[in-house]
Amino acid sequence: MLKCSVGIMAYNEEKNIGRLLSALLGQELEKAKIEEIWVVASGCTDRTEEIVRDFSQKDRRIRLLVQEKREGKASAINLWIKNASPDILVMESADTIPEKDTVENMVSPFQNPEIGMTGAHPIPTNNPKTFMGFATHLLWNLHHHISLKNPKMGEMVAFRKVISEIPQDTAVDEASIEAAIKKLGYRVKYAPDAIVRNKGPENMKDFLKQRKRIQTGHLELKEKEKYRVSTVNSGRILAALFKNFLLDWRFVIFTPLVITLEIWGRILGWYDWRFKRKKHNIWEIAESTKELD
Q1: What is the pLDDT of residues 72-96, one digit of tens each?
Q2: In sequence order, what DSSP letters do the residues of 98-133 get, joined into one string?
Q3: What kind of fold does domain 2-289 have according to CATH?
C-alpha cells in the first residue's frame, strides 16, 4: 500500500474547496492510501477556513494550516511539505476536481523506485464553442499531447518527499518541483488516465494574467536552475498543433488568434522579467477560473 499526503494550497477558495474535499474523500483506491489531506489557507478572507474546519470534524484526515498573511503558493507548499508525514506527496490546485480514480492513477507508478514524480491529465470544463473556451481546450490539449512523449507536470502532481522546499519566490511551483526531482536523478511520468477537471479563463484579461505570470516564472526557472519544461519548446508546440489539426471553422479561425494571444502573453512575461525583474509568486487572481461548471 502506497501511503500519501494530499496538499491543497488555498486562497479564498470557498466556491470549490468543499467539492474538492468531497471528491478526495470519495477516491477509489487499491494500491494507494490517503493518510492525510492538508489544506494550507493562506491569507483567506472568505469562508475557506470555516468550510475546511467543518470537513475536518467529519474526517480526521483533513487538517488545516493557516497563514494569517498571504505569502504565495510556494510558501504554502513548503509549509505543507514540512508537516506532511508520508513519503509520497500529492499536490492539487484548489480550483480543480479529480475523477474518482485520479489519486490511484497518480500514486501507483511509485511502485517503480525510479519514478520521482507524476503529473495528472487536466481537462477543462469550459465550453469549447466559445473563443475563450476553445483557447483553454487547445492549450491543455497541446499540453496533453506533448506530455505523452515529454512529460510536463501541471495542476495536480505527485512526488516523493525527497525535497524539503522549493524556492519561495517561484511563480511556477510544479515546474520547480519537476526540476528539483529530475536533478536528483529520478524520472518523471505523465499519467494520462489521472483526470483532473479545471477551468480556464473566461476573458482575455484573465488569460493574459495567467500567461504573463507563467512565462515570467519559466524565464526565472531557466535563468536560476537552467531548466526548461517541455511545453515552452516552440518546435514541440507546433508539431503537436499540426498533428492535431482539425478541418473545422473554429479551429481554422480561432487557432491563429489563440497563438497571437499566447505570444503576447509571453512578451508581457518577458518584459516583466527582463526589465522590471518582477516576480509573480503572489499573483493576481484570475477570478473567472474559480468556479467550475
Answers
A1: 999 999 999 999 999 999 999 999 9
A2: E-TTHHHHHHGGGGSTTEEEEEEEEEE-S-TTSHHH
A3: Spore Coat Polysaccharide Biosynthesis Protein SpsA; Chain A (3.90.550)
